[in-house]
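Before the break, one more example. Copy the sequence into your notebook; we will annotate it together after we see the structure.
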Amino acid sequence: MRCFVIVMIMLFWARDAMGESSAAAATVRFATFNVSMFREAAGQLRDDLTDPQMTQARLAAAVLQDLRPDVVLLNEFDWDGDGEAIRLFRQNFLAIGRDGHQPLDYPYAYVPLTNTGVHSGFDLDLDGTVSSRPGSRAYGGDAFGFGQFPGQYGFAILSRYPIDTALIRTFRLLRWKDMPGALIPVDWYSPEALAVLRLSSKNHVDVPVRVGERVVHVLASHPTPPTFDGPEDRNGARNADEIRFWSLYLEQPDAAWLVDDSGRAGGLPADSSFVIMGDLNSDPVDGDSRHGAIRELLANPRLQDSPVPRSSGGVEQARLQAGVNTSQTGNPALDTADFDDRNAGNLRLDYVLPSVDLPIEKSGVFWPESSEASFALVGTYPFPLSDHRLVWADVRLASPVEESQE
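Here is what the structure looks like once it is written out:
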């Protein structure tokens, strides 16, 4: 079935001034952006992107053209079997300068398979039905990752540097029960369901990007929201384990249980450079997630989280929106998502976390204050683009020569 074929698009277009680096030290901007470009039916996003006037895509392109990341992860960008949606987004929006924005060229793209909307064949949500017809919430509840059709809520990686396709690793098929210390709710899933239930609600991917002579592993994922369940907290548990996967991937380079979709075992070698990116759906102190998993990841000695990306717009909106934001303990300057102020409030959910050998020179959250012209790109509810904000970090990649002199 075509929709289960990995999409790999490698277009070798002409490089611009911010293309591949030389052997000299380079500053590279990594970003993650949940663009909320999901639709209710398969192929709908692709069809929408054929219209160069599509408002949501124009705004997403404007944000990217303003920030100009070299490598960006787009969460909640519907997957399609031939990669046409991401091609249309680049061609009809990123490559066209509008309203004072300069065109932006990403010669390389990777669109991985996703578990969202891939039906499990079991009643995973225990609603008494096993719906095998795409297009309904009942179907989505029994998929390996919630989705009303295969590919909904997928993600894509765009890069101005070459992607080493031969070394990409994916962990879409890794079973939840094979993770050491898995937090699977007791007596919720049948033994038959547990035998096939996957850890990743979308995918966990290790995508090597070549910057000159250096390789940086982009470790990307989008764990399930820790909500939309009951007292068993199955989504909260899965969210925590999807985040904990990255901690173990860094800590266990020789782990036999860490088997990728091609059959290769083990975590990330200890000498690898990397950047963990994604909408991880977990705030370290506020919200409904199990905070221990994200705190453990942030404390991992192999990565850095300083300076923490921040914005003044997040502070302003927490004050203006009030509600549950007034009782939160986290710093609103670090918030990256704008949610219902009666329940969740604004949270830090989106992360760019480089390895310690990639010094962070600058970082930020694209959340302008309401007095700035660029505030129109984010707005307030109902949002014109997304309820998430782009998060970025500039890291320095030293050349092999410079490294030997340190």
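The longest helix spans residues 234-251. Residues 299 and 357 are 15 Å apart (CA to CA). Try to locate both features in your own notes.
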